[in-house]
Amino acid sequence: MRIAIFTPFIYPFHIDMASTLSKLVNVYVFTCGTFGNYPFDEFLAKKYVVKLNCVNIISSDRIMVPWEALKFLKYRPHISIIFGSESLAGILLYFLSRLIRAKTIVIVEENYVTTMKGLLKKILQSMKRTLVKITYKSADILVAESHASKKYVLKVLHVKRTKPLIVMVHGVDTKKFSKRLSISRDVAKRIVVEKLNMPNDNLVKKRWCTFIGEPSYAKGITILLDAIELISKHGSITPNECVFLIPKLKILRDRKDLRPIYQRKLSQLHITGYIVMYPLLEHNLMPLLYRASDIVVIPSVLIKNGSSDRSPNVALEALASGCIIIASYVGGIPTIVGDAAILVKPNDPYALAIKLCQVLSDYEKYKYLEEKARKRAINELDIRLYSYALLELLARLY
In terms of domains, do 280 and 351 share one? Predict the structure, then answer.
């Protein structure tokens, strides 16, 4: 059996998924490449990854140049698993799959209809949405990444399906992240400080509240910086007790209008010692950073007239690492973390600041969440469970 996995942007879980399925079937991952600053270029060199030459059409929406589709048609899969199903490339791959009579599993990540500006863009978007609704209605199996995504399909797009629509998060390689649990947090901190040439060895003695991923508006970097500023002014948590780790990347790439304001806040909080900037780690070192972190903060924003954080990998990886998670109640996050994390009101730096202070002031009280997080990841969110569940669904139907 031949399986094709398509994704506009490649992430580690796609590779983990392909590796799992390759033990049972022939599998290839077709992708347009990597996203933004994420250091996943190494995955493009995998022997079962096919890089497609894609171009941007509408905003950052990508579609492959026509002759690149021949790579997919030449492989002629029996099953197509399509991520990024609302990208132009994803839609094209879906209809090509139907053309060659491949069974289709379509993954829904969206959770809101985004309204575009400009008459031409609105017309193109309307045409695209018609194709999306056809795809969602006719796919052999439709998998929503979250309850928010399922609601989007049924209540926003009003898609009427006679075939299965299942809520299932894509999963994480729990073994990869649990390997670091054998070392203490202090040891993990020392290793991270050494690997990243971080200047202050006293960092090991402090609580680490870590933000992982792109420091964008959608990911809530403005909410986090506002919350840290509130904490610094209140003085209940000092830099001697805790530091906030933020990646050394350009902030607010998606909101240039806000960048100068928050760059100044970031610089000031860095000077006062509340924030430590860390350089990007190699992917294989990420489990160490999670292990070194006392709290992982996911302050994602509820976006008006746009999709909120759909299915953040940070939430999955933090669960697998047994971290205490403080996250926004938004998008796909509640579906991922369940009751194994602390959820706060989105877009509210006061709510986030209060919860951070509560957890940091009485850390032992919340340590039960570490074990709860690990169990949830292993028992419900492992990439192997996810991959085999998809095959089982197909087997039941056919």
Answer: yes
pLDDT in tens, 359-395: 999 999 999 999 999 999 999 999 999 999 998 988 8
Residue 113 DSSP code: P
CATH of the domain at 49: 3.40.50.2000
Mark whether 141 and 261 lie in a shared domain.
no
- For the whole model, what pTM was predicted? 0.93
The DSSP annotation for 28-78 comes to EEEE----TT---GGGGGSTTEEE--EEE-STT-EEE-GGGHHHHHHH--S
Domain that holds residue 320: 174-379
Q: Strands 79-82 and 2-7, how do they pair?
A: parallel
Element of type H or E holding 277:
strand 275-278
User: Are 182 and 241 part of one and the same domain?
Assistant: yes
Q: Which residues of the chain have pLDDT under 70?
A: 36-37, 58-61, 113-118, 120-121, 397-398
Between CA 92 and CA 101 the distance in angstroms is: 14
Find out whether 76 and 113 touch, Cβ atoms under 8 Å: no
Query: Which tens digits make up the pLDDT trace of 175-211?
Result: 999 888 889 999 999 999 998 888 777 788 899 999 9
